[in-house]
Amino acid sequence: MCAIISGSLIAAHGQNNYPKAKRVDTVDNYFGTAVPDPYRWLEDDRSQETAQWVQAENNITFDYLSKIPFRQDVKKRITELANYEKRSAPSKVKGRYYTFRNDGLQNQSVLYVQDRLDGPATMVLDPNKLSSDGTVALASTAISHDGRYLAYVISRNGSDWNEIFVLDLTTGKTLEDHILWAKFTDVQWLGDGFFYSAYEAPEDAKTSKNEFHHVKYHKLGTPQADDYIEFESKTNPLLFHQVTVTDDERYIFAWVSDAVGNQLYVKDLKDRNPHYRLLAGEMEYYHNLIGVDNGRAYVMTNENAPKWKITAYDLSQARPAATDFVPEKEWVLSDVNIANHKFILTYDRDASSHPYVYDANGKQIAEIKLPALGSVGFSTKKDDPEVFYSFASYVFPTSVYSYDLNTGKSTLVFRPKVALDPSQYVTEQVFYPSRDGTKIPMFLVYKKGLKRDGKRPVFLYGYGGFNASMNPSFNYYRTPFALIESGGIGAFTCLRGGGEYGEQWHRAGTKLQKQNVFDDFICAAEWLIKQRYTRAGKIACNGASNGGLLVGAVVNQRPDLFGAAVPQVGVMDMLRYHLFTIGWNWADDYGRSDESPEMFRYLHKYSPLHSIRNDGTPYPPIMITTSDHDDRVVPAHSFKYAAQLQASNTGQAVKLIRIDTNAGHGAGKPISKVIDEYTDIHSFILYNLGVKYQYSNK
C-alpha cells in the first residue's frame, strides 16, 4: 500500500521507514574544526553490517520503482532505441580491416575482421562468451605489428583493474599468457612480447590506495613473474607511467604523468646504447605524442598554449628541441591524426567538432564538413591514404564515413537504422550568463513545435570537471527520449571545469573556483525558467561521477529549483575522497582537506555529504545510484551521503539509493544492465516531474 505525498510514491508509514543506519562517534579534526563522520562504518563495503544495509536500501528502492505505473513502458522505449546495429570505424592492420560490431542488444560489442571493406566479416573475438551475464568487458585491444597476435585487456564487473590475454590470430587459440593487476593500461607490442602498465597486487582491490604505477614488459610464453620493469619512479608513488611503440618498432616513447601534466621521453632502439632521453620535461603541461613521420616526432601540447598546439622534434638530434608546427588557434585543438603524411586536426568550436586537413608543412589545406553539430573520431595510419571517421550527435547515432584526402570527399560507409526520426527533433545551441556574467554554452534537444509555456519538463545534465568536454553525441540511454517525446526538453550544459574552451576554462572550475561550476549549473536552470521553457520544480538534474558531486552540491544549495535529482556514482565526501584507490589523483581539480585551512573550509562548505540541510527545507525527490564494484569512486561516498540524507530533516519527498551489483563505475557495463539502470532513472524522473509516459512503436 502506498500513499502519494507531494507527487511522489513513498511507503505509507513515512520517511522514517528508511533502514536504520547506526551512528558512531568518529570525529576528525581539520585545523581545529571537529567534523563528525557518523557513518564511517559504511566505508567498509565488505562487512556483513554494510551488506545488510545495502540489501535493506535496495528493497525499499526497488519496491518504490516497481510501483511506477509506466516503468515497463520506459523500458520498452529504451530497449527499442538500444536495439540497432552499431559499428566502429575500421582500423587497418597489415591490409586487413578490424571493426567492432553489435547486432543491437548484445551486452558487449564483437571484434570482426575483413580482407576488404565490401567483403565478408569474420568474427575474431566475442567478449560476450567471456561471461554468462556480460559483466566481462573489453577495455582495449592491440594487434601485434606483424598481424599475428591480438592482446586484449578485460575488466570484470566494471572494475578499473584489468587482466590481459593473448589470442593467436593464425590458429584462433588463446595462449597461456595471462597478466593480472594491470591498471590504467593499454598494450604496446615490441618483438615477441608487449609492454603494459600495472601496480603490484593490492591488499584490497576495491579500496586500497594505488601507488607506484610502472610499465612492465612481458615476453610471450613466459610467466608473469618473469616480466621486467621498463619504466618507473622509485621515489614518487603518485605518478602514472605508460609507453608507446612506433609501428616500425624503432622508437619507444615513455611518459610519466600526474594530474597536471607529463614528461615525455624517447628511446631509439637503433642507437648503439639505447636509453631514454628527455624530450619534453615541463610536468605542469601535457605533451601528448601524435606520432613519428620522416624522422620527426609530433606532439600535441598545452605548454604556453592553453588551447593547445602542435610541436615537432627532430629525432636525429642528440638533444631535440621543440619547434612550433601548428601554433595555438582561436579554438581548442582536441585531437590530431597523421594520415598519408598529412595531418587531420580536430578543433572544438563552442563544444562541437570541426576537423581540418593540414599538409606536411603545417599549412591548412581543407575542411572536412560534418552533417551537423556533433562529435567526430578518426581512424588513420601515417603512411596510408585510407581515412575513416565516425560522427554522432544527439539525434544522429554513430555513422561511419571514409574520407578521400585527394578529393576532400566523404563517403558514407555505414549508417544504422534507429527507431528514431531525426527530422522530428531540434538540436539548438544557446548561451546563457552565469552568476559572474560568463557566457555558458548549452545544447537543447526537443521535438519540433515545442511551446514555451513555462510548463515543459526538463532533464538538465552536467559534468564540469577534469578538462572533459561535453560534445554532442548519441546516447540512447542518457538522452531522455521518453521525456522529450512527452513534450519535454533535454538540456546539456557545458560548465566551467571542462575543456570546452581550453585550460583557462578548466581552471575556472577547480579548487577555490569550484563554486563557478555549481553557479553555471544553477544559472542554466534559472535561464530555462526565465526563458519560459519551464518552471521551478519541473527540472530534473542528473550527472555522474564528478557530475554526481555537482548534483549533490546544487541540490543542497538550491533545492527549490528541482523536481527530481539523480546523482550517479558521485564524489560526495570531499574531505576524505583522496584516501581511496585513485582518489588522490583528483586533488588538482578539487584540492585536499588537509592542505590548508582555507581549502578545508571551502571543501567542507560545498561537500554534498557535509552540506545537507537539516532545518526542514524541502528537498526534491532524490535517487542516488552507485555500484558495489566501483573501485574508482568507491560506493562509500554514496552510502554515507544516502544515510545522512535520510536522517536529515529535508521534507517528505523520497530519498532513495539504488545499488547495482556486479557493476563498476560505468565503463564496459553490459547493455542489459544499462537498460535496467536508465529505465529506473528516467522512470523516477518522469514520475516525479508529473509526466505520464505511454510507449508507442508508431
Strand and helix map with partners:
Layout: E1 2-5, E2 8-11, E3 27-30, E4 33-36, H1 48-66, H2 71-82, E5 86-87, E6 91-93, E7 96-102, E8 110-114, E9 122-125, E10 136-143, E11 149-156, E12 161-168, E13 174-183, E14 188-190, E15 193-198, E16 214-219, E17 228-232, E18 240-245, E19 251-257, E20 262-268, E21 277-280, E22 287-293, E23 296-301, E24 309-314, E25 323-326, E26 332-339, E27 342-349, E28 352-358, E29 364-367, E30 375-379, E31 386-393, E32 396-404, E33 410-414, E34 425-433, E35 439-447, E36 458-461, H3 481-484, E37 489-493, H4 503-507, H5 515-530, E38 539-544, H6 546-557, E39 562-568, H7 587-590, H8 597-606, E40 622-627, H9 636-647, E41 655-660, H10 671-688
Parallel strand pairs: 36-37, 36-38, 38-39, 39-40, 40-41
Antiparallel strand pairs: 1-2, 3-4, 5-7, 6-7, 7-8, 8-9, 10-11, 11-12, 12-13, 14-15, 15-16, 16-17, 18-19, 19-20, 20-21, 22-23, 23-24, 24-25, 26-27, 27-28, 28-29, 30-31, 31-32, 32-33, 34-35, 35-37
Helix pairs in contact: 2-10
Structure description:
The protein is of the alpha+beta class. Among the domains are: 86-130, no CATH class; 332-417; 421-688, Rossmann fold, CATH 3.40.50. It is 16% helix and 35% strand. It contains 10 helices and 41 strands. The longest helix has 19 residues, at 48-66. It is globular and about 75 Å long.
Number of helices: 10
Which architecture of the domain at 421-688 would the CATH scheme give at its second level? 3-Layer(aba) Sandwich
Morphology call:
globular
What is the CATH class name of the domain at 421-688? Answer: Alpha Beta
Number of strands: 41
What proportion of the residues is helical, as a percent range? Answer: 10-25%
Largest sheet: 8 strands, mixed
N-C termini distance: 35 Å
Question: What is the mean pLDDT?
Answer: 93
Q: Which structural class best describes the helix and strand composition?
A: alpha+beta
Strand order of the largest sheet: 34-35-37-36-38-39-40-41
Kindly provide the radius of gyration, computed on alpha-carbon positions and rounded to a whole number of angstroms. Answer: 25 Å
CATH fold annotation of the domain at 421-688: Rossmann fold
CATH superfamily of the domain at 421-688: Alpha/Beta hydrolase fold, catalytic domain
| Strand content bin | 25-35%
Model regions low in confidence, pLDDT < 50 over at least 5 residues: 1-14
